[in-house]
Amino acid sequence: MTAAVRTAACLTLALCLVPWTASGQDQPPPPRGPGPGGGVCHADVMRLCSAVRGQPGAVASCLAEHKDELSEACQAQVEQRSAQGQRIGRRIQQSCADELARYCPEARPGGGGLGRCLRPHEADLSEACRAALPERGQGGRGGGRGRPAP
Q1: Of 77, 101, 115, 124, which is most buried by a Cβ count within 10 Å?
Q2: Roughly what angle, to the nearest 10 degrees, separates helices 72-95 and 58-65?
Q3: What is the 3-state secondary structure (H, E, C) of 82-121?
C-alpha cells in the first residue's frame, strides 16, 4: 500500500469517527430496526448478548434469559414480542398441523423455528398455513413483528 493510499484511508476513517467522538460516544450509534438487537435494546444486547449476535433467534432467547437485568424499555419490548411470538406460534400450530407433521416433525415452538422450518416448503403449504406464517423478515422472535393475530 502506498503512502498516499494509506493516508487517504486514515483520513477517511478519522472523518467517519468524528461524529461519534464529537458527540461523546465511544461507539457507533445503535442500529435502528425492528429486530431485538436494535433500538431500545441495543445497549442490553451489547452488554449481555453480544456473543450470540447474528444467530437466528439467539438474541431474543438471550434477552429472555436475562430479563431481570434488562432496562425497563427493553424489558417491555421483549415481553411484547414474546407475547406476539406466542400468538404467531399458536396460529402456525393450528393452521399448519399437517405440514408441521410432514416437513418439520422435530421443530419446536419458540424463537420462530416453526416458521423457519416451513418457509422452504412454502409452495407446498396449504393456503391456510401460508396465511398463518409471518411475512418475510417479520417472523416471531427471530426478527421482528408478524401480522397481528386474528
Answers
A1: 115
A2: 120
A3: HHHHHHHHHHHHHHCHHHHHHHCCCCCCCCCHHHHHHHHH
pLDDT tens-digit series, residues 98-130: 999 999 999 888 778 899 999 999 999 999 999
As a whole number of angstroms, the distance between CA 7 and CA 1 comes to 10
Cα 64 from Cα 68, distance rounded (Å): 9
| Count of the separate structural domains present in the chain | 2
Q: How many residues belong to the chain?
A: 150
Same-domain check for residues 97 and 138? yes
pLDDT per position as a tens digit, 25-68: 343 334 444 454 558 999 999 999 999 988 867 888 899 899 99
Q: Does residue 149 fall inside a structural domain?
A: no
148 part of a folded domain: no
Q: Where are the beta strands (DSSP E) in the chain?
A: none
**Are residues 57 and 142 in contact, defined by beta-carbon separation less than 8 angstroms?**
yes
Q: Which residue has the cell 503512502?
A: 3
| Torsion of Cα atoms, 120 then 125 then 131 then 137, to 10° | 0
- What pTM value is reported for the model? 0.57
15, 84: one domain: no
